[in-house]
Design goal:
The structure is a homodimer of 209-residue chains. Chain A is mostly helical. Chain A is built from eleven helices and no strands. Chain A is globular, with a radius of gyration of 19 Å. Chains A and B meet through helix 7, helix 8, helix 9, helix 10 and helix 11 of A and helix 7, helix 8, helix 9, helix 10 and helix 11 of B. The structure holds a DNA duplex (30 and 30 nucleotides).
DNA sequence: AAGTCTTAAACAAACGTTTGATTGGCTTGT
DNA sequence: ACAAGCCAATCAAACGTTTGTTTAAGACTT
């Protein structure tokens, strides 16, 4: 069921995509190089040839795809809109990017919950924490201008990311909760809208005076 | 660094505890039977002797420790207290049980996010969803008696569990966020209190009219 | 003495990685 | 223009480890 007509230059990227999907589904250790090679339609030696090692492949997935969310947040930071509007747009940005790059987000989440490859964790944390700092800035802004309550800002951020992570990582649980049979409902546009609406309502009630 | 004076009858349980910790830390596939045996101070053949296989050991961890949260929730359900009081006590129950059984909760979370052993996922989901049903009942109760808003109930539950899961699984992220150096701050009693307070404030603002 | 527990050793299978041969396109010297 | 040389890409095969599991003999308990 795989594509045997892969463009030469895209072969490497094709392998990266396949690997991302398999790692997201089964976890790093559970996916063998042979499985990767078979599903990507290449020889297993090519993995080492391209990336040096299995770990090299994994690192490449992370490095090549650290989301470009930062740019969008920084752009948001300098706009002349209300703090609440910034929070609201932050919800849009994160739900869109994490649910659109579902596999990647799951790989990242699982890597963070493991203490196996600390250098990876450090790198991811350093990236994400910069984003968190920006969002925390939005909350503070609202508080200093008197329209937000003084809540537990850090825990509020945890709730924000925790909600999205839960949606990404507990697909089968969500399906039972929503009485849905198919898991890919999570990817649908209407579902994204629902998640956004919920997070906005939640944060508005929590933050706004 | 291991205990060489293990009570005979507790040897099996000791292995279960060690395994739970290692699986939580590194993930199922990344932990070998040899590593398990060494850290538990037993012969590696004992794992198969006790549990038949590595998967058997894993299943035993799950089966022997499906949290007794249900009993506490069901007891809560029949008490004559306000719906909000029930939600508030639910927060206490879940934060206590999940943060006190941190390793177990992490094993469960990771198992759910994987599509490796579907029978395990099914079992876990069926257990948890019963609990969710009870909590959802509390929310409905509040809505029908007119003191709760009609929010997105399912998403609210996702936020509830997502927040606690994020705390359990993203320890290093949280530490950066809180400017803490040591990870075991998460286990401290004062931290538990903080999580509870946050969740209660959040849910109150979200739910109460 | 019987039966349970414990052990070191061995097992096949699967793992990530390396090797050496082969290919095919590109440059180079004439 | 064309053979020679080169280099990156690709492959099947084999490498040495490590994996989970089994075995068969020994030790301990009752």
């Amino acid at each position: 069921m795989q594509d045997f007509h892969i463009e030469k230059t895209d072969k490497r990227q094709h392998l990266l995509n396949i690997a991302e999907g398999l790692f997201a589904k089964y976890g790093y250790e559970a996916v063998s190089i042979r499985q990767l090679a078979t599903e990507a339609g290449i020889n297993l030696a090519m993995v080492s040839y391209y990336f040096g090692s299995k770990e090299g492949l994994f690192a490449a997935i992370i490095e090549n795809k650290i989301p470009r969310t930062r740019d969008r947040l920084e752009q948001l930071a300098v706009e002349h809109i209300s703090p609440w509007e910034k929070i609201s747009r932050t919800v849009d940005i994160y739900v869109d990017s994490m649910l659109s790059n579902r596999n990647f987000s799951r790989v990242i989440t699982r890597e963070m919950s493991t203490q196996q490859r600390p250098e990876n964790v450090k790198m991811i944390v350093s990236q994400i924490s910069k984003n968190l700092e920006i969002v925390r800035g939005f909350i503070r802004e609202g508080q200093e201008s008197g329209i937000f309550r003084y809540v537990d800002n850090e825990m509020t951020l945890v709730t924000f990311f925790g909600t999205i992570s839960a949606i990404l990582n507990s697909g089968s649980m969500i399906c039972v909760l929503l009485d849905e049979s198919q898991e890919d409902i999570i990817m649908s546009e209407s579902y994204k809208t629902r998640v956004k609406q919920h997070l906005k309502a939640l944060l508005q009630a929590h933050l706004m005076k």
